[in-house]
Amino acid sequence: MRPPRLILLRGLHLLSFDISGYRWYTRLVALACYALLLMPGFLQVAYCYFFSSQVRRSIVYGDQPRNRLDLYLPTNTNGPKPVVVFVTGGAWIIGYKAWGSLLGLQLAERDIIVACVDYRNFPQGTISDMVKDVSQGISFVCNLIDRFGGDPNRIYLMGQSAGAHISACVLLEQAIKESRGESTTWSVSQIKAYFGLSGGYNLFNLVDHFHNRGLYRSIFLSIMEGEESFEQFSPEVRIKDPRNREAASFLPPIKLFHGTSDYSIPSDASINLVEALKGVGAEAEVILYEGKSHTDLFLQDPLRGGKDDLFDHVVSVIHAGDEEALAKDASAPPRKRLVLEILLRLARHISPF
């Protein structure tokens, strides 16, 4: 997994984009404390990431340095497995494929292959580079996952936070291209469902919110290639464009998950996208988790172990119609706790997200 030193250097480099970098310093400190509190769980996951035979790390899918993906493979190799393509978050700045390790390992225990796609971060790349990278990663999975025991007819796309935004942009762009008859290297029809976790889908509504939370307007505009690009990279806005209405019929079922106490990206972001999708006839649903923060759903809850409603919901969708898999899910042991409760509560309290 990426050394913390590199994350710190990335953060310090970003301070040069805005002279008022005080909030960046405080958030870097909070991030360091947050990571230390969760370190017992991170170390266990890191050990599996580096030493488990189930993990195939840094498979090349393109010609850019960050065009790599990790595969998490089930121990059960009987028959082709469903596949989740996962795009991790990181504020478009510190995203890294290994951040999906916990999800990948836990889904692999349920006989699901997970492909965690890496992509260029800012300032190495901007939003169009990120969208291009993720689309290439999805294309690799759609065309070659059968070589790793995956079922090319049962592929699911999932993104978290910034990764939810990027993957939603990719999915809609692909649907628009197909609706216009353009040639593509993969098809939206191969994606059986899209899961968006704590994502933001309307840049016009987020720019001021992020500025007030420390992701300054100047940096955000640089990441998103200026305000003139907001519409292109705002799925909520783009799907409402009459020129793109036909693309709605190409989209798979869309399920968005969000915590009501998410202050990094308010839950209205998911609610509004679902309303926009339904308005053009797409199949979409939002599931809200009362009192959950931006990191509860993706980190604290999985590290807590035991029953997890979001995890169970995702698995039930993927295994729908497979009676044998559903029976195994019903009898699966509770997930192991990786971090003490007191550390999880303290981490939640100081989380910079």
Automatic annotation (TrEMBL):
<dbReference type="GO" id="GO:0016787">
    <property type="term" value="F:hydrolase activity"/>
</dbReference>
<dbReference type="GO" id="GO:0005789">
    <property type="term" value="C:endoplasmic reticulum membrane"/>
</dbReference>
<keyword id="KW-1133">Transmembrane helix</keyword>
<dbReference type="InterPro" id="IPR019826">
    <property type="entry name" value="Carboxylesterase_B_AS"/>
</dbReference>
<keyword id="KW-0333">Golgi apparatus</keyword>
<dbReference type="InterPro" id="IPR029058">
    <property type="entry name" value="AB_hydrolase_fold"/>
</dbReference>
<keyword id="KW-0472">Membrane</keyword>
<keyword id="KW-0256">Endoplasmic reticulum</keyword>
<keyword id="KW-0812">Transmembrane</keyword>
<feature type="domain" description="BD-FAE-like">
    <location>
        <begin position="69"/>
        <end position="277"/>
    </location>
</feature>
<dbReference type="InterPro" id="IPR049492">
    <property type="entry name" value="BD-FAE-like_dom"/>
</dbReference>
<dbReference type="Pfam" id="PF20434">
    <property type="entry name" value="BD-FAE"/>
</dbReference>
<feature type="transmembrane region" description="Helical">
    <location>
        <begin position="24"/>
        <end position="50"/>
    </location>
</feature>
<comment type="similarity">
    <text>Belongs to the AB hydrolase superfamily. Isoprenylcysteine methylesterase family.</text>
</comment>
<keyword id="KW-0378">Hydrolase</keyword>
<dbReference type="GO" id="GO:0000139">
    <property type="term" value="C:Golgi membrane"/>
</dbReference>
<protein>
    <recommendedName>
        <fullName>protein-S-isoprenylcysteine alpha-carbonyl methylesterase</fullName>
        <ecNumber>3.1.1.n2</ecNumber>
    </recommendedName>
</protein>
<dbReference type="InterPro" id="IPR050300">
    <property type="entry name" value="GDXG_lipolytic_enzyme"/>
</dbReference>
